[in-house]
Amino acid sequence: MQINLLSGALGAEITGINLKNTSKENWQEINSLMLEHKVVFFRNQDITSDEHIELAKHFGPLEKHIYVKARENYPEILRIIKASDEKHQWGEGWHTDVSYNPKPTKVIILRSHKIPPVGGDTMFSNMEVAYETLDDKIKDKIKDKKAIHSSLGAAAFTENYKKMEGNGNLKEYSNIHPIVRVHPETGNKILFVNSMYTKRILDMDEKESNETLKKIFKHQERLDFTCRIKWTENAVAIWDNRSLLHQGLSDFFPGRGLGYERVMDRIAIEGDHPK
Ligand SMILES: [Fe+2]
């Protein structure tokens, strides 16, 4: 096995592990690599949908997306499609998946099927380093504080994306989570807010909450916390949704990445209540 670190902050590309091997032993190795590097990336893994599901099940119960319709015959798999003439893709902008849920996603396993020759990389940002490097005054201010995370409604997940279809659910959800959570497996502290879904700090006046969140969101965008995956077809990324932010870049510009379809299969594993 070979581990190539993707940046100084997080992420590793792994060679010498076969994801078609869905044994518990193989999963244990993958899981410990994921806990260490937060996102692990594997190329040339032509796994079937059943193997994708088998691998995911080792992490825990699978989660269905609240708003988006799953693949036919595979309710556990969400197919993310960007049409060839679309500039934007699903998953753009820094976020933690479904942080508005009472139990936000534990792990995501994303498998590529069709990838444009350029554009649409996925970026990740290490929220343990973001917490460690946060200004002491802000750390004091958010100590033991909680924040409200809100879903943006079904339209935000489907309206601007031609190929993404809603499942009929139009409800909106809000949940409260600690701003600094402790990783249930490693015990590390994580800065657990994101500019997409975190709306308000509780027990703080609105102006101060807005100003504090603005400073934190700016801090979270520091490029030295990040790594970047350049996809190829039949590649698999497995990431710890508890301890990082991620985004799919919508850099499909004319004459370069525009004009190509991008197709990914996503499986989400249910998380726990952040503590
Ligand atoms: Fe996402």
What is the topological layout?
Layout (H helix, E strand, L loop, with lengths): L1 E4 L6 E4 L8 H14 L1 E4 L6 H9 L4 E2 L14 E5 L24 E8 L7 E5 H6 L3 H7 L3 E5 L4 H4 L15 E5 L1 E3 L6 E3 L6 E4 L4 H15 L5 E4 L6 E5 L3 E5 L13 E8 L6
Parallel strand pairs: 2-3
Antiparallel strand pairs: 1-2, 3-14, 4-16, 5-16, 6-14, 6-16, 7-13, 7-15, 8-9, 8-12, 10-11
Key descriptive features of the protein:
6 helices, Double-stranded beta-helix, 275 residues, alpha+beta, eight-stranded mixed β-sheet, binds fe (ii) ion, 16 strands, three-stranded antiparallel β-sheet, globular
Account of the 3D structure:
The protein is of the alpha+beta class and 275 residues long. It has one domain: Double-stranded beta-helix (4-Layer Sandwich), CATH 3.60.130.10. It has six helices and 16 strands. Strands 1, 2, 3, 4, 5, 6, 14 and 16 form an eight-stranded mixed β-sheet that branches. A three-stranded antiparallel β-sheet has the order 13-7-15. A three-stranded antiparallel β-sheet has the order 9-8-12. Strand 1 and strand 2 (12-15) form a beta hairpin. The mean pLDDT is 96. Bound molecules: fe (ii) ion. Fe (ii) ion (FE2) is lined by residues 91, 95, 97, 246. Fe (ii) ion (FE2) binds at residues 91, 95, 97, 246.
